[in-house]
Amino acid sequence: MNFQSVTTLFQEAKKTFIKFPLTIIAGIIIAIAGVTLTEAEYYYADQYDNNYETRFFLTKEERSTYWNIILTLIFSIPLLAGIQISSDKNKLGVAKTTILKLIAVGLAACFYFFVTPQQNTFWLGTESLTAILLISSAFLTLTFLPFFKSDTILNFWKYNKYLIKNLALALFFAAVLFGGIALILFSIDELFEIQNFNEDIYLDAWIIIASIFGPWIFLGNFSKAVENIDKQSKISKFIRIFGQYILIPLLFVFAIILYIYAGKILITQEWPQGIVSGLVIGFAIAGMITHIILYPFEKEFSWIKKAQKTFYILLLPQIAMLFTAIYLRISDYGITENRYYIVLLGLWLIGMAFYFLFSKKQNLKYIPVSVTIIIVLSLFGPWSSFNISEADQLKRLESLLEDKLPLPETKKYQLRSILSYLVQNHGTEKLTPLIDTKKLPENFKELDVWEQENKILQIFGVNDYYYDYHPASEYNLQIQYKNKDMDNIKVSGYDYIAGFYISIYGKEDTSYLTIFDTNSFRTSLQNNIFTVYEESKPAEPITFDIGKLVTELVKNKSLSWGSTYLDQEELITENENSDFKIKLLIRYINAKETDKTIAIQNIEGRMLIKVK
User: Fold this and answer.
1) Which of 574, 565, 578, 492 is nearest to 537 (CA)?
2) How many other β-carbons are positioned within 10 Å of the β-carbon of residue 227?
3) pLDDT value at position 337?
4) CA-CA distance, 127 to 115, in Å (whole number)?
5) d(CA 223, CA 173)
6) Which of 379, 611, 352, 372 shows the shortest CA–CA distance to 495?
7) Are 497 and 608 in contact (CB under 8 A)?
8) CA-to-CA distance for 87 and 216, rounded, in angstroms?
9) What is the spatial distance between Cα 223 and Cα 254, in angstroms, rounded to a whole number?
């Protein structure tokens, strides 16, 4: 073994840590939090009915906090790394670098407290989209932050080439390292047959490698490349050949297909649902990537410059088609965040097309800089995607509610669609003036977002999206015991406790056998009747009419489709015969109603048995 090489490796790792301490520490914390979340989840095997379910050592709030920390640190990593690389390249000095890092830490704190959810354990659509876009913009800053001072465009191009190259290398080394460790773990498990081998260890290994070793390798190699960027003058011919003989031909074939497709639309006057925007955006992105890749060869090969201008000329009519398609969608369904960003992207593409067609300088830095600025501006203020989309959908909802209830089926569909969007993406705060809050349950704010949506739909007499996939005369009802943990059960006065789980789904009968010391019992479910009988005396069963129980619960509790949680005493029923007495403690019932006839699909819980 070459100990000198190992020593050099540790020395390089030490230098990288000294240069990027906050970035690497953030990665270490991500690894710890990620492994904690992985190990906090486990499968619970019920000792009575062998029913497996996922449980957690951490509460929902604690798991949410861990996820918020992970996302905040992911947001901060590119900012901290970019600041340090900028400091080294532009020789900013300790004071300026420290101030910039403090700003990055402040932005991370704002991300944690104002972007990630602090009270709810679930993420609204707006919160998720904000987090994704801000993290994306943070990574975009890494592409141009070292070039906030004037520098040659070619150096900017080379910098991003090294950025992508070292990112790919870091991912490759991380994947190889993980593959080796996974193979070792698999060999130990298979060869030594270790009992209770925790398979989550594979995920733990990947989290540690991706969070710590991957960034460490990337930063070490990349910082060296940036330091010597001015000395690197030779650009591989492979890049030009790849762009010239693969990307450009594919791009213009794509353009021909799009123009033929546009001609078809003009002739037939039929616009497909949603596909036009995706095709135009794909064409635009492919063309701009080709432009960026071939930029260093424009002076040497004049045809590349002509091909680049031709692409932007061809792009403009396609953008017009994009705007037409999105206008039709907005006129039918209103504005949402997705449609807002398609419009914004179209406007940005027009700006980029005119810039690269008429500007002599053609600074590539404007591409990531403009995208970052647009993303940030679109997230905050009255012009933000969220405010505009919410206001537009609320206006559509108010217009619908001007009609008398109950609404016709077509408008019920629109109401379901709008309410689903608003609740899942923006919450229920703005809906309060439009609904009778007295009809909402007291624990409404504690419910999951999908349950909140269902409760609001019920107020308007509208069923939820289940009806879009099932006949109008059919629905499912799920009734569950509030506390799923049924381990602490009083068994005094009974001889046995047994778990039961029966699922029929169309079968006429399903029967299970439970064996104790001197007795064996069979259970079955047929025509909504749950039956328990001693195997030696099948003629003397004890029956429970589960269909009647569900019917009474639906009537007395005003239940509707969806998951409903009830108190334990409401899901207890008992019966007896001359030989034994049985108490059922039901944990879960799934029932289907077709033409006002209830059919029990499955039932789960415990039964206490007393032999007389």
Assistant:
1) 578
2) 12
3) 93
4) 6
5) 17
6) 611
7) yes
8) 18
9) 38
Q: Pick out the chain residues at pLDDT < 70.
A: 1-5, 41-56, 118-122, 150, 195-197, 231-233, 272-274, 403-410, 461-478, 480-488, 505-512, 517, 557-563, 594-596
Q: Are 97 and 84 in contact (CB under 8 A)?
A: yes
Asked if residue 72 lies in contact with residue 110, where contact means CB atoms within 8 angstroms, the answer is: no
Phi, psi of 481 (to 5 degrees): -70, 135
* Predicted confidence (pLDDT) per residue in 471-483, tens digit: 333 446 667 665 5
Q: Are 351 and 371 in contact (CB under 8 A)?
A: no
- 473/26 Cα distance (integer angstroms): 54
Distance CA 99, CA 95 (A): 6
What is residue 196's predicted lDDT score, i.e. its pLDDT?
A: 65
pTM score of the predicted model:
0.74
Host H or E run for residue 534: strand 529-534
Residue 563, beta-bridge partner list: 478
Ordered DSSP codes for 161-226:
HHHHHHHHHHHHHHHHHHHHHHHHHHHHHHHHT-TT--THHHHHHHHHIIIIIHHHHHHHHHHHHH
Give 327-343 as a DSSP string. HHHHHHH---HHHHHHH
Pair 134, 379: CB distance under 8 Å: yes
Q: How far is CA 173 from CA 13, 31, 77, 178, 210, in A?
A: 15, 18, 20, 8, 10
Alpha helices, H only, 228-298: 237-242, 248-268, 275-294
> Residues 203, 38: contact at Cβ < 8 Å?
yes
DSSP string, 479-505: EEES---------TT-SEEEEEEEE-T
**Residue pair 394/430 in contact by the 8 Å Cβ criterion:** yes
Handedness of CA 79, 82, 88, 89 (dihedral sign): negative
Helix (H, G, I), strand (E, B) or coil at 542: strand
| pLDDT score at 2 | 44
Q: In residues, how long is the chain?
A: 612
Rounded-to-5 percentages of helix, strand, coil across the chain: 65, 15, 25
**Which is it for the CA torsion 316, 321, 322, 324, positive or negative?**
positive
pLDDT value for 561 = 54
Specify the amino acid at residue 377.
L
Give tens-digit pLDDT for 518-553: 778 888 888 889 988 888 777 788 999 988 888 888
Tokens 């403090």 label which residue?
102
Per the CB < 8 A criterion, the answer to whether 572 and 457 are in contact is no
Stretch (H or E) spanning 510: strand 510-515
Phi, psi of 359 (to 5 degrees): -85, 140
Q: What is the DSSP string of 301-313?
A: -HHHHHHHHHHHH
CB 317 within 8 A of CB 262: yes
In angstroms, what CA-CA distances link 136 with 51, 192, 292, 493? 42, 45, 20, 62
